[in-house]
Amino acid sequence: MKTRKNKTRLRLLSVLAVLSLVLAACGGGEEGGIEQYQENGITIGIANEIPYGYEDEATGEVTGEAPEVARGVLDELGIEAREFVVVEFGALIGGLQAGNFDMIAAGMYINPDRAQQILFSDPDYCVLESMLVPEGNPAGLTNYNSVADTDASLAVASGTVNVDYAHWAGIPEDQIVEFAGIEDQYDALAAGRVDAVSGTILTVQQHANSMDGFEALPAFPALDEEGNPILGCGGYGFLNEDLRNEFNRVLNEKQETGEVQQIVNDIFGAPLADDAAELTVEEITGCESVMCPSDG
């Protein structure tokens, strides 16, 4: 026969078990220090998006802004063995939660919704938006909101912030076309199945340079639900809190010396790491909108 003390203990254990599941679902993190990664290596998720993180077709090597910064930080942490896993952008968070990889290095924007699901490092770059359109911009587009004033169709990649940006801009559902992969959008534009593709100015400009007959719109900020401008700032995603904290510590040290800014700005070809070096993940996710730039 169980005593009251034992019943109370069992109830407490049940509550703790439920609480641990809730914390894990909300990005509470995996257990264990970074020694496991120093001994066994680390698996890193990327989305094959140029210039953020991608597999070079000619060499088969993984490169891009996020992997290159990550390599410098992981070297400092003594984590030498690395395996990269390529998935669709929309599968990155789910893949991390499922244990398919240990961190995300894909230039993923930090925002409050994602921060409820995974742990983020501080940002290492901030950037504005753009769209790829046919040369001459026949629909006269300038930003997300301008699409709502036309009958143009806009491509967005599933799982990206661009889906929210399009909805917040009031674009009708029948004008928003979702694609599973980043490159799928550009294939659709080239085939004439959509009128514009949304994305960061860096990704859009890359495709403008490689696709004849198309041009990138001048960079612009997206607007949140209340009409406030959004500056997208990217970081690295984790579940293991010890790994995130140690990665963040070294990232901050390398930002203080300018090493991160050098890598980011060289790869991007623009000074996009400077604002990010002054921001923290708490400042970004704690804002009423996502935008927390140092210049207000």
Question: What is the structure about, briefly put?
Answer:
The chain has 296 residues and is of the alpha/beta class. The protein is built from 12 helices and 15 strands. It has helices at 4-25, 35-40, 65-77, 92-97, 112-115, 144-147, 161-168, 182-190, 201-210, 241-257, 259-268, 281-285, and strands spanning 42-46, 54-55, 62-63, 82-86, 103-109, 119-120, 125-127, 129-134, 154-157, 176-179, 196-200, 214-216, 222-223, 229-230, 232-238.
Structure, explained:
Helix 7 (161-168) links the parallel strand 9 and strand 10 (176-179). With 296 residues, this protein is an alpha/beta fold. The protein has helices spanning 4-25, 35-40, 65-77, 92-97, 112-115, 144-147, 161-168, 182-190, 201-210, 241-257, 259-268, 281-285, and strands at residues 42-46, 54-55, 62-63, 82-86, 103-109, 119-120, 125-127, 129-134, 154-157, 176-179, 196-200, 214-216, 222-223, 229-230, 232-238. It is built from 12 helices and 15 strands. Strands 1, 4, 5, 6, 7 and 15 form a 6-stranded mixed sheet that branches. A 5-stranded mixed sheet has the order 10-9-11-8-12, with helices on both faces. A two-stranded antiparallel ribbon has the order 2-3. It is globular and about 55 Å long. The relative contact order is 0.17. Helix 3 crosses helix 10 and helix 3 runs antiparallel to helix 11.
Shape: globular
- Rounded to the nearest angstrom, the radius of gyration is 21 Å
Average pLDDT, all residues: 87
Give the class from helix and strand content and strand pairing: alpha/beta
Question: Which percent range fits the helix content?
Answer: 25-40%
List how many beta strands DSSP finds: 15
Task: Tell me the quaternary state.
Answer: single chain
How many helix segments? 12
Low-pLDDT regions: 1-28, 287-296
